[in-house]
Amino acid sequence: MTRNEFLQELRRALENDLSGNIVKENVEYYSQYITEEVSKGKSEEEVLLMLGDPWVLARTIIDAQNGTEQSEVNGNDRQTYSEYDHERGTTEERSSQSHIFTADTWWKKLLWSLVIIMLIIGIFAIITGVISFLAPILIPLLIIMIIVRILGNRYR
């Protein structure tokens, strides 16, 4: 597997569960990590073997975004994301931001759409239920009011 194949697989694995910015940040981090390790004298193949399967690495990154400490994911010998990209905010700031309900993936957008549709259907069902409950009472009252008004206008 080449570096580009590894990074493509990592990107594909991350895109289903993380936002675009976080995916880009992680792919850039591992791209830079591979470059640095190769510049230290290791072969690209050795670095990729050290990193392992990109899908397993992606699962670890996704779990880390869901609350695990970055040092547990990267290990003590690797640079953390907050050290690598400190201007984007601390790890705590990013992890608290990941708990906000967003529609950054297709399945979240679909889920939000379904929730909205269900709410509209529920509101419609409640309104029609109230109308069907009150109709047997309101229709005769309306007819009586119309008759009284017509008869009342005749005698004036």
From TrEMBL:
Enumerate the UniProt keywords alphabetically: Membrane, Transmembrane, Transmembrane helix
- From the record, give the transmembrane residue ranges: 110-127, 133-152
What is the recorded name of this protein? Putative membrane protein
Q: What is the lineage of its organism?
A: Bacteria, Bacillati, Bacillota, Clostridia, Lachnospirales
